[in-house]
Each structure stands twice: as structure tokens, then as C-alpha cells.
Amino acid sequence: MINTLPRQWMNEQRRLGHELCLVLDSQNERDTRQLLVKSSGHDHYLSVYNATTLANLADAGPFIFTLEQSGNRRLDDLLDHPERNWGWLASVERGALRGLVHHWQQRLIVETRPYQALYRFHDNRVLSRALKHLPPEEYPAFLGPAISVCYWDGAAWNTAQNPAPGTYPVPDKPLWLRTPLPHPQASEIRRLNAHRYLLAEHVEAYANLAEEHDPDAWLRERLALADTWGWLEPEQLEFLLIQSLQAPGFALPPEWEVRGDESPVEHFERVRQLVGFWRGKGPI
Predict the structure, then answer these.
(1) What span, in angstroms and rounded, lies between the C-alpha atoms of 246 and 253?
(2) For residue 217, how far is the Cα from the chain centroid?
(3) What is the pTM of this model?
(4) N or C: which end of the chain has fewer CB within 10 A?
(5) How many Å apart are CA 63 and CA 157, to the nearest integer?
(6) What is the pLDDT of residues 2-11, one digit of tens each?
(7) For 79-89, how does the pLDDT look when each residue is reduced to its tens digit (9 = 90+)?
């Protein structure tokens, strides 16, 4: 039985003269993507990663398709199996496909080290979590040209309306990147991103560490220490990881421990000044 809410939403959006788009997870829905590519004109779909720094991942990245009235049946399998988390639906002004793709191309990379990662906007769980926590006035910068969206939130179908569809620059500190994650998922994402950061930026020191320690266990311990100290800002975590890699035996000296009722900020500033003094770069 096909879910009724997305069908009703699609019919209403078409009645209003809007064009429908399917945001598809190409990696996990390759057969569906191929079927849609073969049955769609070249101007009715785009790879989001194409023509970006992620072009080498284009085949596994998300695709966005415009949906013709006659193509509804191709969605039956997707709508019947939302638990596959295949993506979501959006409505736009006619001819706005390229604008929608460009909007998300600008939001693909989370630029903060050591958390630099891809933003999985095409994952309906990511979209659902963002819309749940964003105030409606933040929807335009997040959804861009999308007039309305329809998505599976893990338990039911939902829709959201964009109060001011259009073209917007990426905010300096996008609120959707500060959406809370379930703790186990957040911890795993942070560990993976820290691991990738060390491989990319400090591979020699990281390799030396691996000769004496299990890198995964060491990294988990470092991240747990950051949590204990309340060093949750990217600058603080990057500092902790680099200094730990450079420390004798990959262990920090006792002077790094929290003193009395130091706040995380006071603690971090004291340790940073201490490191600078040891290196002859400033007073203590």
C-alpha cells in the first residue's frame, strides 16, 4: 500500500504549479537511480557532486531528479519503503533544478577542522533532524529554492514549508550544523572525522603513534578526555590532538590537568600559554 501523505503532498504541489524534485541517495539506491536516469531527459536530473571538488565521488553521491506526472509509478517502491532512508522530496519553481543543486553544492563541506566532513543533506534523517531543531526563520537559508519538502522522519511522513524560498549565501555559522545528534552517532562521527583529520594533516606522527599504541583506542581516549575537560570547540580538540601526538610517549604532562574550579575556557587558555612558554613563545 502506497503511503497517502506524500501522494497528497505531490498532488497539492502540482496543483499550485510547482515542479517536483526527488533528492536521491545514489550510493544506496543505485538501481533506482539507473532506472530514473534511463527514463529521464538529460535536463531532468543532475549529480550534486559533479563540477565540485567532490567530482570523483559523483557516481556515489546524491542525484536530484525532476519528476514528471507520468513518472509517478517509478516512486512506488521508494514510497513503500521509507525505512530505506533513500532521500526526500521537494517542490520548486519550474526550471529551478540547477538552482536547487547549486544551493546544496555550496553546503556540502563542513569546513571546520578537525570535524571537516561531508554534509549528508540528501539523508532524510539529517533533513528531519535539522528541521526539527531549526526555527522557521532559519528555513530559507537551509532549504533555499525549495518551496516545500516531504520526508520520512523515521516514524512517519512529514512536510515542511519554506516561508521565503530563494537564493541565499551560506551563513558564517549555519545553525543546521549545530543540530544535536544522538550521542552514540555524534561520538562515532567525531571519532571518524578526527581520524581522517590526523591522517590528512599529521600522518607521520600518527604513524609513529601506531608503532606503540592502538590508534583507535588512543583516539577514543583522547576524545573522552576532551569531553571530561569540556574542550568541545574545534580549536580546543585540534590543540589537544596535536599536542598529544607531539608529547613524549604520546602522553600529556601532569601540568595539563584541571586546577580547582577552572572553567573549560580558563583551563584551555592556561594550558595554551603553558605550551607557548615551553616553546619560548611567550610569558607565563
Answers:
(1) 12
(2) 25
(3) 0.66
(4) N
(5) 21
(6) 478 999 999 9
(7) 999 999 999 99
